[in-house]
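User: Please predict structures.

Assistant: First:
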Amino acid sequence: MPARIPATIVTGFLGAGKTTLIRHLLDNAGGRRIALIINEFGDLGVDGDILRGCGDETCGEEDIVELSNGCICCTVAEDFVPTMLSLIGRDTPPDHIVIETSGLALPQPLVRAFGWPEISTRVTVDGVVAVVDGPAVAAGQFAANLAAVDAQRRADDGLDHETPLSELFADQMASADMVVVNKADLMDEAAAGALVSRLKGQVREGVRVVRAAHGALPVEVLLGMGAAAEDDMEARHEIHHHHHHDGDDDHHHDHDDFESFVIKRGEVADAAAFAARVADTIRAHGILRLKGFVAVEGKPMRLTLQAVGPRVDTCYDQPFGAAPRETRLVVIGEAGLDREAIARALTA
């Protein structure tokens, strides 16, 4: 059976910076064929034209689907599932699907839709990314322009939930695999740090809270989480229990707030013990991603290692052949990682 296509769900209130984050992702997709599902409705929805200049190699006109019949979580059967079936049924399906929800959408019903029999064997939720407006949330509100959010609510005649914004925000945090504190460049260091700490207290263990300016995050951080969120609904409890079924500027930014480096070492004696050490090192140093190949004593195959947060996945993929039998790991995190300490922990 072919591997399931990964899908990333991007949530967040109007004006948080979802569109800018996605546009930056498309501009730096590294050859991946990405399809977009944009939940636009009314006059205040996301302007699909912002994303239509993403380039033929990454996504073409046919790869951008706008759902304009209302909040995506209220139209799963009518709009979302048929759209997914159309995308994955192509002769050349996409490598990755990115779904931008309306700011009013409850994320859990959308994640549950990936369990529908028609799509469950062909697509999986790689991760749920919640984008928050850093200055607005730090100031005690969930969006910079609450009047615009209210107008968006009124524009959707099909909206079948009147969820308070506080509950919507709590649902976004409960469902997230990564929280992006956007517009961090508009906050001083103390305020940004305090907000990150507060949000870390609202999410599940292992969920990363990262800062961004203009949605600029490395693609390696956003994609490839492997969360399989649809199989983990019990942990993503929703606050709202009665559901029946932007003017973002486009800026190019360097990834100065993130860094990556390579650690090399010789063979390891015990693969399981080394994977546990990797998980401990990630927890101790706040590493976002860690991936690479491990040479295990007595094993002719190399061990592929992928870690997202404290979750470490390994498998033997292919013989080393003529390649040197060495362990090579790429570490990715926010700027300021203690490289020497991480290297000591992984090479001891």
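Second:
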Amino acid sequence: MNTNADNGNLKFTVDNAERFGSNYNEPDFWKKLKSLAGKAGRKVAYNALLLYYVLTSRDVPVRYKGIIIGALGYLILPIDLIPDFIPVAGFTDDLAALVAVVKMVSDCVDSEIERKAKEKVKELFGN
């Protein structure tokens, strides 16, 4: 399954997710999420949080971990085809990658993970 989220010369696909994994670490993930609050909107943050909470779940299959880490690393990656500072459009490539991976791992997204993600979005963005 290929997820086409173009990133200049770097193209996110499920098959090459490990390429972006080196950009992922938890402190940078939380820093990026906090910076999204005024820029990318709830949808990007919510999908990123779903993946984060799936990743931290004990029940996530190993085959999904690398793909999730790759998608979150792609979000953190400072170089984008559509620079993140461009209002609205700047996060479309990130959102495309996140949504595709959320769909792929949807069998791991339970009501507790959804609840945690929604609560964290409220915390980051307010009501």
